[in-house]
From TrEMBL:
CDD domains: fatty_acyltransferase_like. This is SGNH/GDSL hydrolase family protein. PANTHER family: GDSL LIPASE_ACYLHYDROLASE, PUTATIVE (AFU_ORTHOLOGUE AFUA_2G00510)-RELATED, ZINC FINGER FYVE DOMAIN CONTAINING PROTEIN. Keywords: Hydrolase. InterPro entries: GDSL (IPR001087), Lipase_GDSL_AS (IPR008265), SGNH_hydro_sf (IPR036514). It comes from Zooshikella harenae.
Length: 393
């Protein structure tokens, strides 16, 4: 009897030791999971593809400092101050001490789809598209497994260029997602569009387009949601920035806004580099201007002289572009050689004394205050889903 009791006690001790050993291993596992989640190692880089809403100076550099005018535009940004990318970078640096790098390929005027094959409009000689931005990136970098690729485009397709084929836009976004994943990135975050009909451009400047822009934005966002659902949630997700904008506009005073449908900057569009050389600029454009045709190979802005860039930007196709026109010269200068016209010009360079309380800086672009709020929300989303997030997949 004593022998049986001793054997039973021995078995119990063995079981207890195994349980303690299992608890130890489980504790180590959970510690490692927590460590890697908190260490900010889930993503190493954020790569951004998009348009002027995300541009931190690419168009400004590409156009040799002529677009957008800085001042009044802030250091090549399409706003009166830093934009969401700048604020996000600052937050990441503060929180994760430069562990997460941002590479920004977004450029003002860029479309989602490539239209240069369908149109010889000189606009398409200047602006980029998602496919072109992808090619630009891969010339200098390679994608890595820990990259987070952000895609935010489509506004220029509908608002600037008047295209209404949302399927073409969806195809361009879908193709970029595929290319990015095949190239080695594991994480893609796609932004939808705020209602384009809520911009000062749609409300005050071209109200006849209000309903049309509202319908195409809603159609875009519905199709984008369906598109994202066809992808693995582990790799591709949607960021509902339309929802964030909607909340701001529903309770603007909570966020410090008192003007949600007016542009803060309403002055003329002559950009500063020409103020000191106004009359020479007039002589410069007096000569014949030629643009690419089917028999003439298209060149990039980087390959043009300053004079050629000026002539191209003066073209009415660009000057009438609502996503850019707040930084472009008034057409009355282009067509007038009367020096008396100078008295009637409202030149750029005089930044409003304050845009406090304004949601929009110009006809279509948010103020830096709005960008900061969006950056806070985007940062929290990225932090929860990609940095301090452990996936069980």
């Amino acid at each position: 009897m004593k022998i049986k009791t001793s054997i039973m006690m021995l078995h119990i001790d063995i079981i207890k030791n195994r349980i303690q050993h299992f608890k130890y291993l489980l504790g180590c596992f959970l510690f490692l999971v927590s460590f890697y989640a908190q260490a900010g190692l889930t993503i190493d880089r954020i790569i951004i593809f998009g348009d002027s809403l995300s541009d931190t100076g690419k168009m400004y550099q590409k156009s040799k400092g002529w677009l957008p005018s800085s001042p009044p535009y802030h250091e090549g940004r399409f706003s009166d101050g830093p934009i969401w990318v700048d604020y996000l970078k600052e937050k990441l640096q503060q929180k994760y001490t430069n562990q997460i790098e941002i590479i920004n390929e977004a450029e003002g005027g860029a479309t989602a789809a490539a239209y240069e094959k369908d149109s010889w409009n000189p606009t398409y000689q200047v602006i980029n598209n998602l496919d072109f931005e992808f090619n630009q990136y891969t010339k200098n970098y390679q994608f890595k497994a820990n990259d987070l690729v952000v895609i935010w485009a489509g506004a220029n397709d509908y608002m600037t260029n008047g295209w209404r084929d949302s399927d073409t836009v969806m195809l361009a976004i879908d193709q970029l997602i595929t290319k990015v994943l095949l190239a080695g990135a594991n994480n893609v975050l796609v932004f939808n569009l705020p209602l384009l009909s809520t911009t000062p451009f749609a409300i005050h400047y071209e109200p006849e387009k209000f309903n049309e822009l509202k319908e195409i934005t809603e159609e875009h966002n519905k199709k984008l949601r369906r598109l994202i659902k066809t992808r693995s949630y582990k790799h591709v997700r949607l960021y509902d920035i339309a929802y964030e904008f909607s909340n701001i506009m529903k309770t603007p005073t909570y966020y410090g806004f008192h003007h949600i449908d007016q542009a803060c900057y309403k002055k003329g569009y002559i950009w500063r580099p020409f103020l000191n050389n106004y009359y020479q600029s007039q002589q410069m454009i007096a000569k014949d201007v030629t643009f690419p045709s089917e028999s003439n190979q298209t060149r990039t802005l980087d390959e043009m002289s300053a004079k050629e860039v000026y002539q191209l930007l003066m073209n009415s196709s660009l000057a009438n572009n609502p996503m850019m026109q707040d930084a472009l010269p008034s057409q009355q200068v282009y067509y007038s050689h009367d020096r008396r016209a100078e008295k009637n010009l409202d030149l750029a360079g005089d930044k409003p004394e304050s845009c406090e309380g304004y949601l929009f800086w110009d006809k279509v672009h948010p103020t830096t205050a709005a960008h900061k709020i969006l950056a806070d929300k985007i940062f929290k989303f990225i932090q929860q889903r990609y940095v301090n997030y452990y996936s069980s997949y």
